[in-house]
Amino acid sequence: MSNAEDNKPSHDQLSSQVFLDLVDSVIADVASECHRVARLGLDRDLEVVEEELRLSVEARAKVADPSNNLETNTKYVVDIFGQSHPPVATEVFNCMNCGRQIVAGRFAPHLERCMGKGRKARAKATRSTTASQNRNSRRNTSDNNQLASGPPGFEENVRRT
Amino acid sequence: MARSVKHSVNRPPTPDEDVRDSPERDELTLGEIINIKLVESGEKENLMELVRDRLVESGWKDEMRIACREHVKKKGRKDVTVDELIRVITPKGRASVPDAVKEELLDRIHNFIRSAAL
């Protein structure tokens, strides 16, 4: 065979070339397959790692920015145990003064009225409270106006004296 | 006496069958000729199947896929291209073919070349 080339490739070289060619084909197949899996997101393990990474970045951003929390979670802040606390305490118990069932969140205003602290808040009077205050004031002051004045003005009278 | 064949149709003579569509035989390298013979005889396909089977059995393919995944993890799966993956794993791939597999393949190819009488 007349060949223009100076160095005729040996059989070994030719075989090697063919072999490399075959291996390159298989490599291309593997690369193509992996590329497809990667782009389609078929590799669940990879996805999990990506998802965790994303969540941790988000969590870090949230921690660094406290104003975020106040705006979004005003009503139901979740503590580290996962419990949520409504802004107004909802537990109900009995008032030790008047014996009524009071919602804990409304206890302070109730107590104001119940113990006779606020002026205008004394619109409703129970017999027991007025009776005890009547007794108290009767002892302290002379009984001029107490019996005559009704409950509305009663407190003011007591205060004045 | 001149033989005159009466043609019903006037047409130029059919071109010689020796002239093929492919470039002149002399210009094809030996490697190319061998490749053509491999394909035409079906031996190329047999060899491909053999290579694939052997490389899968030996765990070579799994190693390559792990290498690909590592690269994808680094680059991010949306950015990666096939060419890039090929470029990344080819050196390692070529180097890590088990010797036994290589020997077997080279043997078969050798035999083919010899039997093709080139």
From TrEMBL, chain A:
It is found in: Nucleus. Residues 117-161 are annotated as: Disordered. Keywords: Activator, Chromatin regulator, Metal-binding, Nucleus, Transcription, Transcription regulation, Zinc, Zinc-finger. Residues 126-135 have a biased composition (Low complexity). The keyword Transcription applies. Belongs to the SGF11 family. This is SAGA-associated factor 11.
From TrEMBL, chain B:
Its main location: nucleus. Transmembrane segments: none annotated. Residues 1-25 are annotated as: Disordered. It is found in: Nucleus, Nucleoplasm. It comes from the Eukaryota. Keywords: Activator, Chromatin regulator, mRNA transport, Nucleus, Protein transport, Transcription, Transcription regulation, Translocation, Transport. InterPro entries: TF_ENY2 (IPR018783), TF_EnY2_sf (IPR038212). Component of the nuclear pore complex (NPC)-associated TREX-2 complex (transcription and export complex 2). Component of the SAGA transcription coactivator-HAT complex. Within the SAGA complex, participates to a subcomplex of SAGA called the DUB module (deubiquitination module). PANTHER family: ENHANCER OF YELLOW 2 TRANSCRIPTION FACTOR. Involved in mRNA export coupled transcription activation by association with both the TREX-2 and the SAGA complexes. The transcription regulatory histone acetylation (HAT) complex SAGA is a multiprotein complex that activates transcription by remodeling chromatin and mediating histone acetylation and deubiquitination. Within the SAGA complex, participates to a subcomplex that specifically deubiquitinates histones. The SAGA complex is recruited to specific gene promoters by activators, where it is required for transcription. Belongs to the ENY2 family. This is Transcription and mRNA export factor ENY2. It comes from Brassica napus (Rape).
